[in-house]
Write a structure and sequence with these properties.
This protein is α/β, with parallel strands linked by helices. Helices cover 41% and strands 17% of the residues. It contains twelve helices and twelve strands.
Length: 290
């Protein structure tokens, strides 16, 4: 049985993957208590001390505003600590599975969905950090898998704290009866994270390269929010009152950073559509009957 060192082990993706794959791998968990990502030497010391076959590197600061405000600090967290992990994987001959992002395309003028070989362009520090990491990995490691994620969705349950998602945002708006804006000039992928977690064992066996983890979505973020509200049983009147269009955000340039997952599909790793994912999540967590 192979051993996986997972960084960001308390985060949503890491926790979910571990939960579904707990019997297929030995797991070593790296959290903030083990190594401070703002100190790359601290990261290198911890990772070098572990014995593993695969490093699943999920840890990062992905908060767009924080990254833009603190570029030097997040460069240590997102890039320099990744370099420390690259060094360790290279020394140990271990495979690296690196979590990248759709945000590596947020500066594109043309529309998605984008394939893996599409040139990257990011206007945010976080997106730029991930592009730099991808370049470092590709230059230095022969055995590495780069997974570019869309916005990963799900809901929390004991032991698993889900990241913010459009489903949670719509639920919060409806439950609190708070009118909430959703972006009109944006299309992005949104994927049920469970589908990554259940197929992660297959992902570890992939050939080195870049792969897009993405369900299909043809709707704008505003249209997607209305779909979620409808799936939750909200009336048309309530949706019109609470789910509001944000026509100002990105009006200068439509943002479309959807990812094309055809490459993984061709290898037997399947993802669904946004609509199917939303309905599955709501059924899995008892918000909707089958």
């Amino acid at each position: 049985m192979k051993t996986i060192l997972v960084t960001g082990a308390n985060g949503y993706i890491a926790s979910l993957v571990k939960a579904y794959q707990k019997d297929k791998f030995n797991w070593i968990c790296m959290t903030r208590k083990d190594a401070d990502l703002t100190n790359p030497e601290d990261v290198k010391k911890f990772v070098a001390s572990q014995d593993f076959d695969i490093c699943f590197h999920t840890a990062a600061n992905a908060t767009t505003a924080f990254c833009n405000e603190h570029p030097d600090l997040v460069h240590k967290i997102n890039v320099e600590s990744t370099q420390a992990i690259i060094d360790c994987c290279k020394e140990k001959g271990a495979k690296l599975i690196f979590c990248s992002t759709e945000q590596a395309f947020n500066g594109k003028e043309n529309r998605g969905p984008f394939k893996e070989d599409e040139p990257l362009s990011a206007v945010t520090v976080y997106g730029q950090n991930k592009i730099e990491c991808e370049e470092l990995i590709q230059k230095q490691l022969d055995d590495a898998i780069i997974l570019r994620f869309t916005w990963m969705m799900g809901l929390s349950y004991p032991g698993i704290k889900a990241s913010p998602s459009i489903i949670k945002n719509v639920m919060n708006a409806l439950i609190s009866h708070t009118p909430t804006l959703f972006t009109v000039h944006e299309k992005r992928g949104m994927t049920y994270a469970k589908h990554l977690a259940t197929q992660f064992d297959k992902i570890t066996e992939l050939e080195p390269g870049i792969y897009h983890v993405a369900s299909k979505n043809t709707m704008t973020t505003y249209e997607s929010a209305k779909f979620v509200a409808k799936a939750l049983g909200a009336s048309d009147e309530l949706i019109e009152e609470i789910i509001l269009p944000n026509n100002e955000r990105y009006q200068d340039r439509f943002r479309d950073y959807r990812l094309d997952s055809e490459k993984l599909e061709s290898l037997g790793i399947h993802f669904a559509t946004f609509e199917e994912d939303v309905n599955e999540i709501l059924m899995d967590f008892g918000w909707k009957k089958s």
